[in-house]
């Protein structure tokens, strides 16, 4: 007679790549494509409970997710400390190159080495395990992480220069109009503040020459006096330009985010300004912390559980930042509600979260949940429902998956430069520093 399987043993994992509508938001690489790939993970236990996870859905991530999903069958959802070794064994344990040149080569997500891709994939499975475990135990994910320290998590308005529509009228339409100058940026901020109650604002920069972006931040400061403001050119500037912008905006910036690429250049800028520097580009793994902190290159690390390997790794990063007196907040990329729920659950457990977190969620009008997550007063409630507290809508998931299946327009891999070439056939991602 064989023993019955434990109810927390993983019996099945469904991986569903989807394409989700994205507006024409501009950045250093180009413009967002009309649809962005994401991967939705459904993990079913022997006890019949389903846990949800979400991560990047580009081909490189899917290629790692499939073997990892197969290897997880038969393991328990509580076996989280063993996940990195399992992932390394299954996906290949190639060493990660680091260094400033590599950072420049990596685009907006920093250096995308095999090890980092592996962590992003693993994070989706870790979240799904925690969701399933919480649902089975009748506990919210934050309880599995030691309990929440706050009932609401603050998010900031994420402002983008943008066009009214995608080149060629592709994709879904929205009524936001274009935002290409200070007045447009302020109007966008006002609408985000009115709709969601945001009280802090981050402008994605590196799109226009710095003086134009400085003027936009000045206009925001005039429209929202005393509110925390941030500017993030994703490493597009030289050290000299960064110092000049920091000087010009020192009285209104909460922090300047990745003005230059790489730890060495960030350290040079930091040494010449009193404006704190934040990053989601030069410190994206534990290996990159020591040098950056020793050189005092960054004052705020913008954690992203997708990069760092999950919610428990986020808490480990928080502890390191606390130890070294470095601030912590949260970065976001295009994401849906499963990821927002995961971000909120972990953010609630971190004592040293001193800045509003980033989220792209207001730009994502489509989701795979039965109910969108509400942002009120710039905050998301930290739910106490079991697991992540969100419910998958299978019909919506199927519809977004059908879009992925139907794609023959090269959208299965996010490529903002390719999207930009639809408007400007000569576009190549500018070399950095651009200004
Ligand atoms: O969505 O265009 C974008 C952002 O630029 C994103 O790709 C970055 O990863 O939000 C990000 C950031 O803070 O650098
Ligand atoms: Mg950033």
Structure report:
There is one protein chain. By secondary structure, the chain is of the alpha/beta class. It contains 15 helices and 14 strands. A 7-stranded parallel β-sheet has the order 7-8-9-10-11-12-13. Strand 11, helix 10 and strand 12 form a beta-alpha-beta unit. Helix 7 runs parallel beside helix 8. The longest helix is centred in the first third of the chain and has 24 residues. The chain is globular, with a radius of gyration of 21 Å. The relative contact order is 0.17. About 2% of the residues have low confidence. D-glucarate binds next to loops. InterPro entries: DgoD-like, Enolase-like_C_sf, Enolase-like_N, Enolase_C-like, Mandelate_racemase_C, Mandelate_racemase_N_dom. Pfam families: MR_MLE_C, MR_MLE_N. This is glucarate dehydratase. Pathway: Carbohydrate acid metabolism; D-glucarate degradation; 2,5-dioxopentanoate from D-glucarate: step 1/2. Its EC number is 4.2.1.40.
Strand pairing plus helix content: what structural class? alpha/beta
The helix-strand sequence is EEEEEHHHHHEEHEHEHEHEHEHHEHEHH
Outline the biggest β-sheet.
Answer: 7 strands, parallel
Spatial strand order of the main sheet: 7-8-9-10-11-12-13
Give a count of the beta strands, DSSP E runs of length 2 or more: 14
Radius of gyration: 21 Å
Portion of residues in beta strands equals: 15-25%
Question: Can you list the ligands bound to this structure?
Answer: D-glucarate, magnesium ion
What is the helical fraction, as a range of percent? 25-40%
Q: What's the total helix number?
A: 15
Uncertain ranges: 97-106
Q: Mean pLDDT across all residues, rounded? A: 95
Measured between the Cα atoms of the first and last residue, the distance is: 72 Å
What best-fitting shape do the alpha-carbon axes yield?
Answer: globular
